[in-house]
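Regression check, fe (ii) ion case 200:
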Amino acid sequence: MKHLPLTTIEGRAALLHALAHIELNAIDLALDIVWRFSGMPEQFYRDWVSIAKEEALHFTLLRNHLLGLGFDYGDFDAHNSLWEMAEKTQDDVLARVALVPRTLEARGLDASPAVKNKLVSVGDKKGGEILDLILKDEIGHVAAGNHWYRWICNQRGLDPISTYADLTRKYDAPRLRPPFNLDARRLAGFDEVELRQLAS
Ligand SMILES: [Fe+2]
Ligand SMILES: [Fe+2]
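Current build output:
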């Protein structure tokens, strides 16, 4: 995908395809959380079912946009890093919410403005609008991750800050790199201590 410039239709399609693939994984991830982990409050399951619905909308919007360029989902190779983290964290709901929604999905918040600008800069206004809608919904998904992460930490008597550092080491989570979308992260419920740690 890297070798195709975004100014070409194929390059733009490759980028949209990569995003569509992430959304398809995100549907599976949201539903996986629902069926895999038992004993959580009813609202936990309701949250992730409605997240799955939003991920399905994101996938559909991106796929339709891709179809408009003459390509379809499946036309390019796709990477598997989201699902690899899902597999690594399959035995612990705390690790799952710590490292999938509030780490990998939160990285999506960081990446969104630059990707949107790239699309708009090559004249893809529609793509930019889809990215805006996705960002708005993803803030909610990360917020659910933060809410349930803290809830489980509280249940287990764990400190959320030090536990997160432990989990990133234990599961070899990707290092977070700037630029950070601090506004979006704030809206998604990261507190100031967590945001300061990102910057350091
Ligand atoms: Fe999404
Ligand atoms: Fe999401």
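Comparison notes: Residues 9-199 form a domain with the Ferritin fold (CATH 1.20.1260). The pocket of fe (ii) ion (ligand 1) is lined by residues 23, 26, 55, 58, 134, 138 (CB under 6 Å). No diff flagged against the previous build.
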